[in-house]
């Protein structure tokens, strides 16, 4: 069979794969995206966009009820059918025509079907019509296939037909009751969304909530979920799950049991690397792919991995950041141009190490960047944590009556720069970019004093954090 040649083949046409291909094409290469589902991927259809569309209406309603004068005008509950219809508008009813038009308009070829490595720099695509297309890469293949929900080995769980994140974000109706197993971002966000729909929600976590973030973040989210009507069971092991007709019973290690219409398992992710031909090039199917900072898979000069599959930072924006670096460096290497692969160089993803921003869209939101106090201490930094109650800031008291929120700034005491920042509170995601700039640019504290926050906005918390730390 004759093969079609491109400079770059990208397995997976989600947001990450699209960005790799786009940057390579902008660098003068030809590129093809191989996709067996929807062009645009998980983020567009089953994760970032639909999940936030589900969460936002409840946040808006609660925000109105936190302001005297506005709350008196709120007389009803969410129109769940309207919320779901709005969600559908963001996914284009799970139609990717517009994404395909964008790719083709950007000069990127799109091949439908399931692609597998069949030789070095060779991908064979099983097409929907039962045929095969062989693609060969002149320079590189990039794996951007993402990750799937991990379903743990709990007795009866798989047989109970559990929801995963995809089911939760694409549901056509809200169940009357839902058990959420997990304590991370997906678990807390979906508990927030479905509680706002009037669903009776129970969240079961074998530890606390939002492990890996500052401890007060999980504590504040747990308190807020309980205020929103969610039954939150912490430090509780799920031991058995079984379904009887249209009901699911979840049993716990303390002898308890919860019965609901649906159960959502939100206990982590697993890489989509099981059926893409990794064994052909000496890699293990099902493994995460280890890369250097230019996203090249270790041990190869032609194979790259971007996004979730490399396990560096399972966040769409970090995957796209990696993709920009990878697309640029693939083009540079193909043209024999110099590679800027030093720290913070053009062709590397340095920020993946200690400057990763992320938002958990619960209510209150959790926005963080960089290192937590524990992570900084474990990394050997001499640090000081500075905390401030955001509700004390004038802008916060205007924003919402009784605003509750906390900010923490982690300072490297030797260099006097910010290593990490965490905000918990309503709409704190809008504070995050300033924190990210401070961490990435390693802005000295004495210079931050000259970054004057507008009054009265919640951004004034920056001044209060600096005042609490003290003048240099």
TrEMBL record:
Q: Gene3D superfamilies attached here?
A: 3.30.390.30, FAD/NAD(P)-binding domain
* Cofactor(s) needed for function: FAD
Cofactor remark: Binds 1 FAD per subunit.
Residue intervals of the FAD/NAD(P)-binding domain? 6-317
Instruction: Report the SS bond pairs.
Output: 43-48
Task: Cite the binding residues for FAD.
Answer: 52, 115, 145-147, 308
What the entry lists under InterPro entries is as follows: Class-I_Pyr_Nuc-Dis_Oxidored, FAD/NAD-bd_sf, FAD/NAD-binding_dom, FAD/NAD-linked_Rdtase_dimer_sf, Pyr_nuc-diS_OxRdtase, Pyr_nucl-diS_OxRdtase_dimer
- List the protein's name: Oxidoreductase
């Amino acid at each position: 069979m004759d093969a079609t040649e491109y400079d770059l083949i990208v397995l997976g046409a989600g947001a990450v794969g699209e960005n790799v291909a786009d940057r390579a094409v902008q660098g003068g290469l030809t590129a093809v995206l191989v996709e067996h589902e929807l062009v645009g991927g998980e983020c567009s259809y089953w994760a970032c966009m639909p999940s936030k569309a589900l969460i936002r209406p409840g946040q808006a309603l609660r925000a109105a009820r936190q302001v005297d004068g506005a709350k008196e005008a709120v007389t009803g509950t969410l129109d769940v059918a309207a919320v779901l219809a709005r969600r559908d508008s963001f996914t284009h009813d799970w139609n990717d025509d517009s994404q395909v038009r964008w790719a083709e308009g950007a000069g990127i070829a799109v091949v439908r079907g399931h692609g597998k490595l069949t030789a070095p720099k060779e991908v064979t695509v099983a097409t929907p019509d039962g045929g095969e297309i062989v693609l060969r890469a002149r320079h590189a293949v990039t794996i951007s296939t993402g990750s799937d929900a991990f379903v743990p080995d709990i007795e009866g769980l798989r047989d109970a037909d559990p929801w995963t994140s995809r089911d939760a974000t694409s549901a056509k109706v809200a169940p009357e009751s839902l058990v959420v197993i997990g304590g991370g971002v997906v678990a807390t966000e979906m508990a927030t969304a479905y509680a706002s729909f009037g669903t009776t929600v129970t969240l079961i976590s074998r530890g606390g909530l939002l492990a890996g973030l500052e401890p007060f973040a999980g504590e504040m989210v747990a308190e807020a979920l309980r205020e929103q009507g969610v039954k939150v069971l912490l430090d509780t092991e799920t031991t058995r799950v079984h379904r009887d007709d249209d009901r699911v019973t979840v049993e716990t290690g303390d002898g308890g049991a919860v019965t609901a219409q649906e159960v959502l398992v939100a206990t982590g992710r697993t890489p989509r690397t099981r059926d893409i031909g990794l064994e052909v090039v000496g890699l293990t199917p099902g493994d995460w792919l280890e890369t250097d900072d230019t996203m090249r898979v270790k041990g190869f000069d032609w194979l790259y991995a971007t996004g979730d599959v490399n396990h560096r930072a399972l966040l769409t924006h970090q995957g796209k950041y990696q993709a920009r670096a990878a697309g640029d460096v693939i083009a540079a290497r193909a043209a024999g141009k110099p590679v800027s692969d030093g720290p913070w160089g053009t062709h590397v993803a340095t920020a993946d190490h200690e400057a990763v921003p992320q938002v958990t869209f619960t209510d209150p939101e959790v926005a963080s960047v960089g290192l937590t106090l524990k992570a900084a201490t474990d990394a050997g930094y001499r640090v000081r944590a500075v905390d401030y109650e955001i509700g004390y800031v004038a802008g916060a008291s205007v924003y919402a009556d009784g605003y509750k929120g906390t900010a923490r700034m982690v300072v490297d005491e030797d260099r006097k720069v910010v290593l990490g920042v965490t905000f918990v509170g309503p709409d704190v995601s809008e504070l995050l970019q300033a924190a990210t700039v401070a961490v990435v640019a390693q802005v000295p504290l004495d210079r931050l004093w000259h970054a004057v926050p507008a009054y009265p906005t919640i951004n004034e918390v920056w001044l209060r954090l600096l005042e609490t730390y003290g003048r240099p």
